[in-house]
Amino acid sequence: MARVYDSLDEIIAGAKANTMSLAIFKPSQILDFVWKAEDREWPTDKVIQLQNAANQPDLFTDNAWRDTFKIVNRLPYSFSYRFKDANGRKSNLQIIDWETGALYWNCLHDADGDEQQALKKVRQKYMDEFLKTDLHFFMGTLFQFHSVSPNPWLIVGVLPIPFEKQIDLFDC
Question: Model-level pTM greater than 0.90?
């Protein structure tokens, strides 16, 4: 069984000591769910690099994927949770879970391209719905930030665990 952490200080120390790069974390209080506008286009040099790699066949592997290779649209927003840990330490960590991006694209489609309405729908899911659960984060680090960042952790997945109130267990 995996340990569930509730102290940022403990997992930050583990990352700095290079003994921990993945963790399950339970925030004590969610303060907010926020988004920030990002660049809407991929850097040109990265696009050229990917296109060149896709056009270079490999002698030893199946190259069928190259026929359907397509560069996807860049997510125009990054999403973060603001929260407190069990010691009252406040933090703002970015969510890099692909499901958050997929939810945004689906909400944008449902909102007929209205970005503000789509963002409100994403917030509704992450604040209104998820806060009715026993919310946990799957956390991960990037090695290059272990020694330079005050907090190298990112939210790589959001786990809204459903729970029943204890009184409901006694209803027959």
Answer: no
